[in-house]
Each structure stands twice: as C-alpha cells, then as structure tokens.
Amino acid sequence: MLKHTVVTALTFVLMTAVLHAPAVAAPKVLKFSCLEPETSLETKLLREYFVKDIEENSNGRYKIDMYPGSSLGNTDTVVQGLNMGTIHLAFDSASNLSQFAPKLAIFDLPYMFTREELAKVMDSPAGNKLKAETRNFGVQIINFIAAFQRNLISRKPFHTVAEMEGAKARSTNSKWHIFGLQALGFKPIPMAAAEMLTGIQQGVVDCMDIAISAMYGYHVYDVAKNIILTDQTNICTTLFTSAEWWDSLPQADKQIITEAANAYRTAITEAFNQSQAKFIRLLKDGGCDVYTLPESERNIWRQKVYKEYQHLPEDMLILFKELRAAADA
Q1: Which CATH number fits domain 25-328: 3.40.190.170, 1.10.1270.20, 3.10.450.50, 3.40.50.1380?
Q2: Is 315 in a helix, a strand, or coil?
Q3: How far is CA 10 from CA 7, 55, 147, 204, in A?
C-alpha cells in the first residue's frame, strides 16, 4: 500500500512538472532569397557557412529556408518582400541593387580596388557611408563580397594597353560598365550573355571582359583563344536584409549574422581563387594562350581610367576618392 502511494505521488509530481515546464519556443523561420542557382559554388558555401553558422550559433532560435535561383523573384520583388516582412535575408549582386542605390554601381568601374582591399574599404567610414545608401529604400547591407574578377578573352593576342585601344568589347547594359570600358580605351557594344559566343564568333566584338569561369562555361574559348589576365574589375555581390527587421534585432543576433556573413566571405574568396586556377588549366587544355598583363601595363591602365574618372558626376567622384583613400590608408 505504501509503495503504491509513493509511486502515485511521484507520478503526480512528474506530471505537474511537465505541465508547468516552460514551453520551448519554436525557431523563427527566416526566408533567404539567393540569386545563384542550387548547383552554384556560392549557394553551396552560403548553406555551409552563412546558413549553418546562424542556425547553430543562435542555439536553434533561427531556422533558415533558402530559396536559390531567384525563385522568390527578381531584385525588385525581393526588396518589396524585405520591406513587407515576407523575406528576411537576401543574396544578390551590388549591380542589381544599384537600381535603388545608384552609387553601388561604382563596383562596375575598373581598378576601383583589389579583392584584398575590399574588406578594408567596406569596414571604413567611407564603406559604411556607401552601405547606408540602401537604407533609403529599406535595405540594410550586411557585407559586400568580391565575387569574381573580369579578365579579357580575345580573338587576337594583346600584350600592351596600346594594342587594345579601339577594340570592340562586349559590355553589359550597365552605363558604368560601358563608361569603364570607354575609359580603358575600348569601344563597348552592349550584348546579352546568351549572345556572347555568336557575337565574338561573327566579329561583332573583338573581345570581352568576363569571369574566367564564364569563358569556359559559355564556350567562348571555342572561338577566342587569347586570354589576358588583367583583373580590372571585381564583380561584387552582397548579403542584405530589411533595415526595419535589422534594427529590431538585439546586438547579439546582429553579431551572429555579421560573423556568419564574414565567414562566407572568407570561404568564397578562397574557393574562387582555387576555382580560377582550375578553369585556367581547362582553358589551356582547350588550346588557349593565357597571358598575364604586366604590372607596368596595368599601371598605365589605372592612370588612364583615374584620369577619366575626373569626369564622373560629382557625387560619384567624391565617393570614388573616399573609397580609394580608404584603400590606400
């Protein structure tokens, strides 16, 4: 009888403890829009570093659902979603965001800064000032990432800047990409990526400045066998979020997200370096000649474009000088 009473009492105590135990809060689900497709290196590393780090370091308070391949819509739609609170995080190109914050287009200009200078520049007062541009349309930049560098692929060999003068170069529709190519001495011809192969094959353009991986992926090397490593432009991507949501977060959560973004930046920079070396080997195997433009020639180009940058609109010229000063400090 006593044993039965003790068991009943213990059962009652345990049930009471369970009923009165504090409920474990369900994780907050964050929708994350990603420009790149599921199979891309960027998406793989975003999952491995950015997403995983936030989920683990928040002790399960956040769960991130990632939507690659712009499956939540284009940049316009994503920015609307951020402002409506239906999307929480996003990964896109700085160039795409420049339709809202025109100064971000400065990343389309050649020889702005090296990949190594990017983190230093973006953590400077000038970099923070540039990040603040996006808050005017409700977006908070978490960080910028130098995704890849534009190099030249041409139908004929170029060994000096003088030899490139007046060559017809494929460009995007970005007015600043066009401006930059003109500053380098080219004759820019806007052309969609899907038209690049036929454009250079038919002689519509003589050359184009694209990523090493794109030279291989778009089979441009089938008809253009001369690659000139110039590293003239860093194409930048960015991780960003809603300014309103960001401002509502405790400082500890902001730090978790920022550190995860920085971990991704470090990982993707190393991965891109390895990837570029791999694609250069593949292009050489495909019969391409790979020539590194000497630093003396690059300096001629830098001096040339910096002279042309004096004709930028005043606000862009001021920004250029501030960013360069931060890089040189």
Answers
A1: 3.40.190.170
A2: helix
A3: 5, 38, 62, 86
CB-based contact 82:100 (threshold 8 Å):
no
Dihedral sign for Cα atoms in the order 321, 303, 184, 238 = negative
Show Cβ contacts of residue 293 under 8 Å, excluding neighbours closer than 6 positions: 159, 228, 229, 230
- Residue type at 150? R
Q: Render 133-190 in DSSP notation, one character per residue.
A: GGGGGTEEEEEEEEEEEEEEEESS---SHHHHTT-EEEE-S-HHHHHHHHHHT-EEEE
Tokens of 5: 């009473």
Divide the 329 residues of the chain into consecutive groups of 10 and give the mean pLDDT of each group.
48 49 73 90 94 96 95 94 97 90 88 82 87 92 88 93 93 88 94 89 95 89 95 90 97 97 92 89 96 93 90 90 90
How many residues does this entry show for the chain?
329
**CA nearest neighbour of 36 among 237, 218, 323, 328:** 237
| β-strand pairing of 139-154 with 207-210 | antiparallel
- Partnered with residue 210 across adjacent β-strands are 151
CA distance 72 to 79: 11
Give me the helix-helix angle, 295-308 and 175-184, nearest 10°.
120
Give the end-to-end CA distance of the chain in Å, rounded to a whole number: 84
pTM over 0.90: no
User: Measured between alpha carbons, how far is 87 from 84 in angstroms, rounded to an integer?
Assistant: 8
* Beta-carbon contacts of residue 319 (< 8 Å; ≥ 6 apart): 103, 106, 126, 130
Residue 59 has what DSSP assignment? Answer: T
